[in-house]
Amino acid sequence: MATLLIRDVSPEVHRLLKERAERHHRSLSKEVIAILEDSVIPSRGALPPLVKGAFPVTPDWLDEARRAGRE
């Protein structure tokens, strides 16, 4: 495996990444790797075609719904 060093990340972005990692039950490093993989491997981040009138249900949307009590 290769190592990647990212410098000069703003405190806000760092905080948001940590929060996102916690929501997905991952370490910060694993979360960043997942984000990178989803952005460069077409099949990882691809959503299925939408049904007419539907919208994609993403992990972030589900997290928001759970926080709002809409399970």
What can you see in these coordinates?
The protein has helices at 11-23, 28-40, 42-45, 59-67. Helix 1 packs across helix 2 (28-40). It has a domain at 13-42 and 54-67. It is an all-alpha fold and 71 residues long. The model has no long low-confidence stretch (mean pLDDT 84).
List the helices and strands and how they pair.
Layout: H1 11-23, H2 28-40, H3 42-45, H4 59-67
Structural descriptors:
single chain; 71 residues; mainly alpha; 55% helix
Q: Could you list the spans in which at least 5 consecutive residues all have pLDDT below 50? A: none
- Assembly type of the chains comes to single chain
- Mean pLDDT across the residues is 84
Helix content: 40-55%
Output the helix-strand order: HHHH
Structural class: mainly alpha
Summarize the structure.
The protein is mostly helical and 71 residues long. The chain is built from four helices and no strands.
